Amino acid sequence: MENTPAKKKLSRGKKAGIIAGAVLLLVIAAVLIYGFVLTRTGYWLLAKFTPDSPEQQMSYTSASDTVRQIAEEGFVLMQNNDGLLPLSGGPEKTKINLFGIRSIQMVYNGGGSAASDVTRCVRLEDALKGQNFELNGDLLNVYYNYFNTGKVSLAAAQAPSNGGASEFIAAPDSITIPELPASAFADTSLYSDGKTLMEHAREFSGTAVVVLSRSAGEHADLDVRDLQLTAEEIALLDSVCGSFDDVVLLLNCANTLEVGFVRDYPQIKSVLWVGFPGESGNLAAAAILSGAVNPSGRTADTWVTDNLSAPAANNFRELQTDGTWAANSFHYSNVSDNPDVSQLLLAMGEDTTVRGYFNHYAEGIYVGYKYYETRHDTDPGYDYEADVVYPFGHGLSYTTFDKKIMAMNEENGVITVRVEVKNTGSMAGKDVIELYCTPPYTGAIEKSTVNLAAFKKTNLIQPGETEYYSLEIPVEDLASYDYKVNGCYVLEKGDYVLSLRSDSHTVVDENTWSLGRDIIYDDTHDGKRPSDRVTALNRFDQALGADDYLTRAWDQSGRAFTGPVEGDYTAPQSVLDALTWKNPTDAELGLTEMPALGVALDKPLMLADMVGVPKDDPKWDAFISQLTIDEMAALCTSGGYTIGGIERLGSPRLATPDGPTGMMANAWSGPIMGVDKSGVTYPTEVVLASSWNQDMAELMGATVGTEAQALGFSGWYAPGMNTHRTPFSGRNFEYYAEDGVLAGEIGGAVVKGATDKGVICYIKHFALNEREAENRQGLFTWSNEQAIREIYLKPFEIAVKKGGSLGVMSSFNYVGHEWAGGCEALLTQVLRSEWGFEGVVITDSNRYSYMYVDQMIYAGGDLSLDFMAAFKMPGGEDQKNRLLAAAENPDTKIGFALGLQRASKDILYAVSNTWNMQ
């Protein structure tokens, strides 16, 4: 009997152990079910330990070569006084003193959706050593020590690892990082001989290379002061230029710095812009500095002395006296804060409150060089040189070229310009042929005096050799959009001067094409433009707002230059109504017949049967009729870095990563897709645009496509196609240029290259997404239709018409009174009807209360990017259930059935064109 208590105790312990074991097994089972059945996070974790396949390794090697080629042609030699570059011909040039904290911690990529692993990126020091430059080791050690420990020391030190500016969904808190104190250069205690660090540097070599950088990223705009020299940078330049006569400035930034300071330092003889160079871009920078590569890039933006000199700056955000933008800029005073229902997102620290902001694109078409050149040409009192340091399209070479127009003729609606290019220097190099148009101006339609019409990168031309090139300009491309009188594109009669220029400002040669009568591109007069499927007419009257306040009076008296006035801060009722959405009824839409759903065909059609079938073939209608409402609702809400599969019809689940600078499985998309692999980090879009080379852009697209196939990706949330309206947007690095023709031609070529490889490119963010701050909290964008079409839609239009894009991502903001992802004028009337787009439209991350998924369906959108559903988070079925509820509502069921069928057809047609369906 004395053992009984022990036995009872043991029995209780066994029970506890059994219970604990059972709980553990349940937890393990739950984790496994969540990670491998409900989601794919388990596969993502396993992928971390899976070695790269031979196909992946080959794709990385090829992509790294492409990165270097892009950089070689995209980096811009902005200035080269006294022929300082290339640095060759003796130790005074081949021995380099590197200055600037960013010389040892460069920015390779931006933050946010484009973020990538930059640890593999080639460091500047290593690239320079690879070109046989000898670097001042003492300076390197001082910078390494200061970066690593905050102390100034000559002790041998390790270079820091790459990083610091490419975090995912994080404010770019490293826009600048602290410079080495100027006092360090005058410190006499570092060396035993009592000489200073600067004196020893000068004894090492007479050449200094200074690196200045700015990082950028999603979610945050750059302040005015962020794009000006800091006090530390001024002290650095004072120190370096006080000791060296030969200074090279390396600009490692995507947003345009205010560069008037280069005029204050005559010692800065050469300026090389490298943007964000990506994985192997620094190899190109070193090769350009050594002369192994002749630079041929041209600026994609206008670089000025004062970024506030552009009229758009006054209607970007509210500027404070300290050079920062005010929080909650341009907030409608009568819009009550509308907290999002997602408490989970609020708990994660994300502000999803819809407050209601506005942004007036009051400058109209006068963006970038179109403002500076037009004002120069029309305002006798304007001092162009005081504003503009490096014009749009500017770039230097180590050789010289002579260019002239040999002939020009127009036939069948196309103007062909024949250009002769001769290399008159002593080094082989490439040039850029830039053709601009100066149209007749009557005052009836606003027009810039200078408009990029066509461009071409030459081949590598040997010294003394001459080559000939033909550039074609469709006559329709010279038309302007007349939103006031005719409501369509109009080509006014008169003389159109086509000028060959070395940049937007400098004329080399010109010729004139004359038009004897107005051509009005509408059905009443001369018919639609040849490139349109239906006539382009006014679609965005509601985006104009109450007033049209555009002015071409350059005296800064108009609202385009002064910003909003008091009355602008009160939202009209139409804005208040736009914050909520109510589905139209079938009766209101005149719908009476329910479409066939869930049809059981005698011989079921599989998606493989639809490969290569034109979208207007009736076979597609038969295929779609097999889908049920539940299948379609699930498909249309499966867009969290994926497109959901329909197994019974052979439609695969697709992985579609984010990342305009490469095929990236990041911290969000990787667990959802079940993939951990990523491709290389490419130079950012603005670097590629600065190559002015469509062939190079198509090569990048094809290389990305090859990586996608090796990694198992079928879609790509890229490229970014928005406009550099101002230098301040945090996402300018992932957009191409201030000009729509340049952006469209380069971006369209990328899309073509990737699409030909079977990748769905979601060109983004459609449209008018040129500001990061508050654009997720209900940002109403107002603009006239001429600016919308000629400036902001132009890149997307070219990417659809020429690039053949099968994907589009809509934007967070409103276009006038309608959320862009639910704007029928944008998604149906323009994108699909006018441009002939046949692919899938996805929303941007759909986690804000005004992004109604049913509004998306009615407007012509297809797919909701819902990461909460992808992660099976609380509320993750809300969007699907919202669609199901509308489809089951007797008042809306017909419209929703038709809308879901249309959207499903759009999605599955795009899927049928992917590489894994070929």
In short:
By secondary structure, the chain is α/β, with parallel strands linked by helices. It has 28 helices and 28 strands.
Description:
Residues 431-504 form the Fibronectin type III-like domain. GO terms for molecular function: hydrolase activity, hydrolyzing O-glycosyl compounds. Keywords: Hydrolase, Membrane, Transmembrane, Transmembrane helix. The protein has 918 residues and is α/β, with parallel strands linked by helices. It has 4 domains: 4-38; 76-296, Glycoside hydrolase family 3 C-terminal domain (Rossmann fold, 3-Layer(aba) Sandwich); 369-422 and 446-535, Immunoglobulins (Immunoglobulin-like, Sandwich), CATH 2.60.40.10; 571-917, Alpha-Beta Barrel (TIM Barrel), CATH 3.20.20.300. The protein is 30% helix and 15% strand. It is built from 28 helices and 28 strands. The chain has a 6-stranded mixed β-sheet, sandwiched between helices. A 4-stranded mixed β-sheet has the order 8-24-26-27, with no helix packed on it. A hairpin with a 2-residue loop joins strand 26 and strand 27 (818-819). Helix 3 packs across helix 9 (281-290). Mean pLDDT is 91; it is low at 165-171.
